[in-house]
Amino acid sequence: MRKEKPIQRYNALERMNHWVVAFCFILAAISGLGFFFPSFNWLMNIFGTPQLARILHPFAGVIMFAAFMIMFLRYWKYNLFNRNDLVWAKNIHRITLNEEVEGDDTGRYNFGQKCVFWVAIISLVLLLASGIVIWRPYFAHAFPIPLIRLALLVHSLAAVGLIITIMVHIYAALWIKGTITAMVEGTVPAAWAKKHHPRWYREVREKQQEDKP
Fold first, then answer.
1. CA atoms 41, 166, 76, 189: torsion sign
2. Which of 10-14, 98-102, 168-172 has the lowest mean pLDDT?
3. What is the CATH number of the domain that holds 188?
4. Is 61 within 8 Å of 23 (Cβ atoms)?
5. Which among 32, 39, 38, 37 has a CA at the least distance from the CA of 54?
């Protein structure tokens, strides 16, 4: 039997967009931990000096938010929850053991990936809104001290939530063989798509048939 050709999962621009978000996240998260924990002050040297970190940290965050919004506008429709997500969630213990689950007809993204997507966008919106309130010297002077204190709390909690979410995202990408390759090379084996995202696999193949002359 002839081996099926790999399926394109992400094009070059999508992959570049993803790595911009990832790079900015690393810069913002590491420098942010340096601000939050006195024992981690040395992490602020990721920008060269603590002074530069305080200046550049918010700019890295804004770029990350803008880049993620591009991803959001492109992928939100694939991350809407549906009935199949209940099947995936109820059988997560079997899925983690790499077992076949009857009735699982996952689309482009599974329930776990959708949760990461929505938690990430909510966290980023909170980070941007609170970040503007505490951003010195540009905006903080326009807000009362109580609001700035509240914004600092929200910013810290949202940052912790986003860091944990991204850690789960990285772990899952390492655990499911072929996931990182998809974001580096842009394609996945047909067998991988059939197993992990069967409905998406069928949709891609149907579109390919329709596009044939």
1. positive
2. 98-102
3. 1.20.950.20
4. no
5. 32
pLDDT digits (tens, 9 = 90+) for 97-156: 777 777 788 999 999 999 999 999 999 999 999 999 999 999 999 999 999 999 999 999
In-domain check, residue 99: no
Q: How many Å is the maximal CA-CA distance in the chain? A: 70
100 belongs to a structural domain: no
Q: What's the structural domain count of the chain?
A: 1
Strand, helix or coil at 141? helix
Q: Is the dihedral of CA 19, 204, 92, 81 positive or negative?
A: positive
154 contact partners, CB below 8 Å, separation of at least 6: 126, 129, 130
Q: How far is CA 7 from the centre of its chain?
A: 22
Residue range of the domain that includes 18 = 9-92+106-211
- Catalytic positions are 169
* Cα 206 to the center of its chain, rounded Å: 28
Phi-psi region of 143 (alpha: psi -120 to 50; beta: other; left: phi over 0): beta
User: Per the domain annotation, does 27 fall within a domain?
Assistant: yes
Establish if 1 belongs to a structural domain: no
Tell me the pLDDT tens digit for each residue of 179-197. Answer: 888 999 999 999 999 988 9
